[in-house]
Write a structure and sequence with these properties.
Blueprint lengths: L1 H26 L3 H12 L15 H15 L5 H16 L14 H10 L13 H5 L4 H16 L8 E8 L15 E6 L2 H13 L19 H16 L5 E7 L9 H10 L4 H12 L2 E6 L2 E2 L14 H12 L8 E6 L4 E7 L1
Parallel strand pairs: 1-4
Antiparallel strand pairs: 1-2, 3-7, 4-5, 6-7
Helix pairs in contact: 1-2, 4-10, 5-7, 5-8, 10-12
Length: 353
């Protein structure tokens, strides 16, 4: 009887907790938090997927995912990649920039600020270090990390473990477990990188923010910005030209795997055009070079492969550098408005006549 009463009390407390979270999110008009809590409680069927590509063996499944994702994160055309690499070598050989000054140095206050902002309950990297380990450690850790990060900037190198991650396949939104057989194409990868490397990424974005500025027409992956803002801008610009008697032609583009296949030599060229500091450029070059990842399915890991820097690495730093690469290729077109939204690979061109 005591056991049954304990189960009932636990169920009531759990439901009360979800009810309170839903109520607070609704009252504070936090739409994202409300629907996240709703989906966690009453959302889609979370049945475990045991068969992928007609295979039920876990080791074979993880091998299929590894082969698929490693192929996705490679450049499409070898000839074009070689041409971009050659252009990079020509620019890099004679490149020079300003030296790092005191305004670019990391301090313990900066490190503490970003560690305190990190969300808890997130999975740890391959080093088994989670954000809670940093948040509940001795305050001296902030001083040690700040000195360590400054040494990395001075030498232009990061530890090898900073380039190691594991990728977890997540079903896409269009996936339906009851509609068809499941294949690797029904999943997208989310990469889990070391938590200390994430702290360094945030510190770099803070101290070197002017080198990573993106267009005002970029709405995806920005704080307090999203698809609704892109749609509002699209509608407002369209109505503006129509009300003045112009003809508006819309062209929506969805570039497949654009984030995954970003050419890193091309990115370095664009960063040099922004006069990025040579020390930071050297750090990024070496960081990209040591990048490897593997697939985790259940408790099984696949082989490691070189995923230098791809879209599966879901962090603000990766999004910022990819946005720089994509937006730098826009052409000067008369009366053209460009809106980018959603997953950073969709954009809409508005041409008015």
């Amino acid at each position: 009887m005591t056991y049954r009463n304990g189960i009932r009390n636990r169920q009531r407390n759990e439901m009360q907790m979800y009810t309170n979270d839903l109520h607070e999110s609704l009252m504070q008009k936090q739409a994202a938090a409300f629907w996240k809590c709703w989906d966690a409680t009453f959302g889609k069927d979370k049945s475990d997927i045991t068969i992928v590509d007609g295979v039920s063996d876990v080791k074979k499944i993880v091998s299929h995912f590894a082969a698929h994702l490693s192929k996705v994160c490679t450049n499409s055309t070898v000839r074009k990649s070689e041409r971009v690499k050659s252009a990079y070598n020509d620019v890099r050989h004679n490149y020079c920039s300003q030296m790092i000054d005191d305004s670019h140095r990391f301090d313990d206050e900066l490190v503490e600020r970003f560690i305190s902002r990190m969300k808890r309950g997130k999975p740890a990297g391959l080093d088994n270090i989670a954000s809670e380990h940093l948040q509940f450690s001795h305050p001296l850790l902030y001083v040690i990390l700040s000195k360590l990060f400054n040494c990395m900037m001075d030498t232009g190198h990061v530890p090898e473990c900073f380039g190691q991650s594991y990728t977890v396949p997540i079903p896409k939104a269009s996936y339906n477990i009851r509609s068809k057989s499941v294949t690797v194409n029904d999943f997208r990868g989310i990469s889990i990188s070391p938590v200390i490397s994430k702290v360094l990424e945030h510190c770099i974005l803070d101290r070197y923010s002017k080198f990573f500025e993106t267009s005002d027409s970029q709405f995806g992956f920005k704080k307090d910005s999203g698809c609704s803002h892109a749609l509002h801008t699209l509608r407002h610009v369209t109505d503006y030209y129509i009300s003045r008697g112009s003809t508006v032609n819309l062209c929506a583009l969805d570039v497949s795997k654009a984030f995954d296949k970003m050419n890193h030599h091309g990115l370095f060229v664009k960063l040099m055009e922004r006069q990025i500091l040579n020390a930071l450029l050297l750090l990024l070059e070496n960081w990209f070079k040591i990048g490897v990842t593997c697939v985790k399915w259940g408790n099984v890991f696949s082989f490691l492969w070189g995923a230098v820097w791809n879209s599966t690495r879901q962090c603000s730093f990766a999004v910022s550098v990819c946005s720089i690469y994509r937006w730098s290729y826009r052409k000067d077109t008369c009366q053209l408005t460009r809106v980018s939204h959603q997953n950073d690979t969709s954009q809409c061109h508005i041409i008015c006549r």
